[in-house]
Amino acid sequence: MHAFVLALFRGTSSFCATGLTFGTLFFAAALTPSLIPRTHIIQGILCGLVFAIGYGIGVLFGALWRYLELPEIRGRKRAILKIGVGIICLVVTLAALGSSAAWQNSIRAAMDMPSVPSVYPVTLTAIALAVFLTLLAISRILIRLGQYISSKMHPVMPRRVANVIAASVTAFLIWTIANGLLINTAFNSLDASFKRYDALMEPDRVQPSSPNKTGSAASLIDWRDLGRAGREYIASAPTAVEISAFTGRAAMEPVRVYAGLNVGNTPQARARQALEELKRQRGFERSVLVIAVPTGTGWVDPSAMIGLEYLHDGNVASIAMQYSYLNSPLSLLFQPEYGIESARALFETVYEYWKSLPVDERPKIYLHGLSLGAFNSQSSVSLFEILDAPLNGAVWSGPPFPSPLWRSMTRNRNPDSPEWLPVVRDGAFVRFMNQNGEAPGNGTEWGVMRTVYLQYASDAIVFFDSSVFYREPEWMKEPRGPDVSADLRWYPIVTALQLVVDMAFADTAPMGHGHVYAPEHYLDAWREVASAEGWQSEDIDRLKQYLRHKVDEGNAEGFEERGG
């Protein structure tokens, strides 16, 4: 072990040729396309990180080679080999940089985005080099720290024991500093920042004057206690006049109920208050009731609800409850239990009251959630507790890859259906849809409960998996999804890191791709789950165009704050 440690330290005293070789190959692979287009700045940061990881692997490989005392090439042959490998790496790098714009444009073409003339390879490379050198410097400082600790213990204990203890102490110090200082400090700062943002009162979003609105003077929930996302959700509801003007039929004002974090001290208290507000607005007298679970910040996607409300002439009630100030990735990382507990409390409270109503007088009841909301919504209900009074269905969009129910359905799909658009048996209970509709192979008849997963093949939040580090995923094989680049290739470690970046920027994709779900695709999903009479195919097409226009032109509340 001592010999291995010495070999490793020798590899860090200067630039390691093996490390540079691995790093260069990793750098070139990182330039290839993944699921989401990247700017040259993001691409440079990614390439620098990947180069550093490849370099580290190369250093470890060289140290292991020397530790095992395997034969090494020396003298003139070694010099020639270095020159040859260097030339190959240079050619590979230049070729990858030369192709990088075309690779990025292959993603953009799949998403109907305009092409870019260049990815600014010089700037990109400079950024990557700066990132690599920074990470290399940090790693060498940590190694020197381990060496220093080990040298102080050599006089009082065996050298190998000292090396092990030094490595353990160094790792402990790194973890303590990173977790106890950096991560906790960053978390507390972000939590406070998101909390202040949530409490910010928007001057152009006034309190509703209608007593039939959540947050009005007659409401059981104060306008200020809705939070920013809640006020946005209430304000973004279409009016009966707007719906009627489009359909030409009499319409109702949709009921939207929302409870912010300040409404109660516990999820159960907030859920009870939300239920009372829903009862006050006579939401249980509507034909459709949706229990919606928001994203981490409390945001409910208006694209998901507005189409359903038009589809049913406003005869829809929805209820949602905030559980966090943080965005979804941070909420899932630091407070995973909060969302599930909140979703569970809201479902139990509303469902138990709904179940107590006469069967022929209660509305049809559905679940909905986007992203982390889909994850929590799926976790809020158990099949066995609803056997005596089944739900009518659910629409879950962009379910994150850890979602147990989604993973089970995907894993047990019919063998002839792709992972990015599965078919489960005859589709009587669950169906998967994307921008092109549901997968061929589903039957025509639905069962008692109707569940639709709306997902795009380009959504890394849905399709990331830790196994991508060492195995090509099924969704990457032919045939591929409609908005996935034909130039996408799998590389160990590199592709997984690309997908991690894709997850971080999934909301930057154009609507209808990535993690940005379009109202017309939601409409198709709701038509499967909660169909309505009186609509012709040409009317549905016109409604899709109308909803998309509201989004594209910024003609509706709530769409500009997309995210969460």
From TrEMBL:
<feature type="transmembrane region" description="Helical">
    <location>
        <begin position="123"/>
        <end position="143"/>
    </location>
</feature>
<keyword id="KW-0472">Membrane</keyword>
<feature type="domain" description="Alpha/beta-hydrolase N-terminal">
    <location>
        <begin position="31"/>
        <end position="238"/>
    </location>
</feature>
<dbReference type="InterPro" id="IPR012037">
    <property type="entry name" value="Alpha/beta-hydrolase_fam"/>
</dbReference>
<dbReference type="Pfam" id="PF10081">
    <property type="entry name" value="Abhydrolase_9"/>
</dbReference>
<feature type="transmembrane region" description="Helical">
    <location>
        <begin position="40"/>
        <end position="68"/>
    </location>
</feature>
<protein>
    <submittedName>
        <fullName>Alpha/beta-hydrolase family protein</fullName>
    </submittedName>
</protein>
<keyword id="KW-0812">Transmembrane</keyword>
<keyword id="KW-1133">Transmembrane helix</keyword>
<dbReference type="InterPro" id="IPR027788">
    <property type="entry name" value="Alpha/beta-hydrolase_N_dom"/>
</dbReference>
<feature type="domain" description="Alpha/beta-hydrolase catalytic">
    <location>
        <begin position="255"/>
        <end position="543"/>
    </location>
</feature>
<dbReference type="Pfam" id="PF15420">
    <property type="entry name" value="Abhydrolase_9_N"/>
</dbReference>
<feature type="transmembrane region" description="Helical">
    <location>
        <begin position="80"/>
        <end position="103"/>
    </location>
</feature>
<dbReference type="InterPro" id="IPR027787">
    <property type="entry name" value="Alpha/beta-hydrolase_catalytic"/>
</dbReference>
<feature type="transmembrane region" description="Helical">
    <location>
        <begin position="164"/>
        <end position="187"/>
    </location>
</feature>
